[in-house]
TrEMBL record, chains A, B:
<dbReference type="GO" id="GO:0016811">
    <property type="term" value="F:hydrolase activity, acting on carbon-nitrogen (but not peptide) bonds, in linear amides"/>
</dbReference>
<dbReference type="InterPro" id="IPR036526">
    <property type="entry name" value="C-N_Hydrolase_sf"/>
</dbReference>
<dbReference type="InterPro" id="IPR003010">
    <property type="entry name" value="C-N_Hydrolase"/>
</dbReference>
<keyword id="KW-0378">Hydrolase</keyword>
<protein>
    <submittedName>
        <fullName>Putative amidohydrolase</fullName>
    </submittedName>
</protein>
<feature type="domain" description="CN hydrolase">
    <location>
        <begin position="4"/>
        <end position="273"/>
    </location>
</feature>
<dbReference type="InterPro" id="IPR050345">
    <property type="entry name" value="Aliph_Amidase/BUP"/>
</dbReference>
<dbReference type="Pfam" id="PF00795">
    <property type="entry name" value="CN_hydrolase"/>
</dbReference>
């Protein structure tokens, strides 16, 4: 057994008016619950520190920058890191990253049990659009506020296992899982903020959105024989609803734990990394079965090109 | 609407002792049922014409070759093609292909409504092993009897849409769907022979096998916004059980029809290819969202290489 007792720490809604200090206090409370439940690893959502601001169209860059962190840890998040160090609990969470060069990314980090940042990931698959779209029920301006991630899909050794990160929409892209699978990943963490209704098709509501979410996490887990820990920011934020459905999925693709609310809520599972071995050495023993000579289009073209 | 009324024609078991003539008679009967139900496209399983022979270890190549077809159509299958032409029903089915050069492939073909073969696919992802394995509950010798497919994952225009084929284990590999998705595929057909118990883990029974089957077909359909028509050879063959669960999956990843038996059984659905458009133009508009600069490992390495 190589067990990582893992807590998925779902966050309820964060209103625009809520301060970083209020949010960090909630995070610390969840972290303490996770520690009390025996967890050594705590996973928080995408953009944990703020409301899901890509729903708002804002032209003033100074106003936009208030949703970003120029330092990590920074003044607001230092107490979170301090508490994690005291509790010896490793963690992952997402935030808006503003670099010294003025670049903006949708980022997540991974820490070890000493509270040191050992990994950083910047979201590659940005959904949505970059200009105000009057045809949508609400905006989804990730392509406006963020650059596509420039760090690829790295993995890190942590807590005795091999860990990778993705963020929200990445989970719908099998390429993201596979690049990590090809590095032997055993646990993928991902945070998400997923509107409960498709902004471009009002008939696609929360049931469908949860279905696609689960399908994407479960297939990624199964097809790479890895644990997947998917954590929502959920509930009604600024009048807009986000799905819950935080999940822990085993390397067989089965959901072993799922949240029941759209509030701050913890689920914990003892994730045995040895459970990855069967899949990785049989049906998904990539070296024996993958035929890369036939996969060329995957890296040759971004878009679809129908035949003549 | 660009509707293809499609029949998934599940075959019950085919015993080792059953003749090609008997099998083809069953296929023609199913084809007639499909035509009577208004279908213009009929999809049969993998290795439709014989028992799933990779479960048998045979050293005598002449005996092995009896499971293969040297011509298509050939003497046994000519009546099937003739009936399909009369009924003006296009079809896809799988068989063991023996080439003039003596190569063996696990192959499927696609015909148009005139009964002409317009596409051929040779299975790329061969599961199992090549030598007798005493540790398995039964053998799965696809790597012994077949060469890996050498035709890639092409697509063809047929019946007003863009069609591709895969076979059985291919459905577990998102690369297979994606290469076709990058050619705009709107309907993927696949036949399968899936043992009801994992030969290397007896606790993985039919429920798990059906779960993984559905998960793989549904995620492939959703993530490429394509119809998937998956057709089983099912039931107890030569004393060995194969799952049923033939499916028609819509481009949203939802199962719209599924067989209920492990016998010869038809399901039909009016597949509207226009239903692919929403996914292909929004969340899975590949050109806007895919970031091929980060997918390099997918084509650079076959096997997984954990970090140092």
């Amino acid at each position: 057994m190589r067990e990582i007792s893992t807590a998925a720490l779902q966050m309820g809604p964060i209103q625009k008016s809520e301060s970083r200090a209020e949010v960090v206090a909630r995070m610390i409370s969840l972290l303490e619950q996770a520690h009390a439940a025996g967890a050594v690893f705590a996973v928080f959502p995408e953009l944990t520190l703020t409301t899901f601001f890509p729903r708002w169209y804002v032209e003033d860059q100074a106003q936009v920058d208030q949703w970003f962190e120029a330092e990590m840890p920074g003044p607001h998040t230092a107490p979170l890191f301090a508490r994690a160090r005291e509790l010896k609990i490793a963690m992952s969470f997402g935030y808006g990253e503003l670099t010294p060069e003025g670049q903006h990314f949708n980022t997540s980090i991974l820490t070890n049990r000493e509270g040191e940042i050992i990994g950083k990931y910047r979201k590659v698959h940005l959904p949505g659009h970059s200009e105000y779209d009057p045809e949508r029920a609400f905006q989804h301006l990730e392509k406006r506020y963020f650059l596509p991630g420039d760090l690829g899909f790295p993995v890190w050794r942590n807590l005795g296992g091999i860990m990778g990160m993705m963020i929200c929409n990445d989970r719908r892209w099998p390429e993201a899982y596979r690049v990590m699978g090809l590095q032997g990943v055993e646990m993928v963490t991902l945070g998400f903020n997923t509107p409960s209704v498709n902004s471009q098709m009002s008939s696609e509501g929360p049931e469908d959105r949860l279905f696609h979410h689960r399908l994407s996490c479960q297939s990624g887990a199964y097809q790479n024989a890895t644990w997947v820990v998917a954590v929502a920011k959920a509930g009604v934020e600024d009048g807009h609803s986000l799905i819950g459905g935080s999940l822990i999925v085993d390397p067989n693709g089965k959901i072993v734990a799922e949240t029941k609310t759209e509030e701050d809520e913890m689920i914990v599972h003892h994730c045995d990394l040895e459970a990855c071995n069967f899949g990785k050495s049989t049906i998904f023993d990539f070296k024996r079965h993958r035929r890369i000579e036939h996969y060329g289009l995957i890296t040759q073209r971004a878009g679809a090109e129908p035949p003549d």
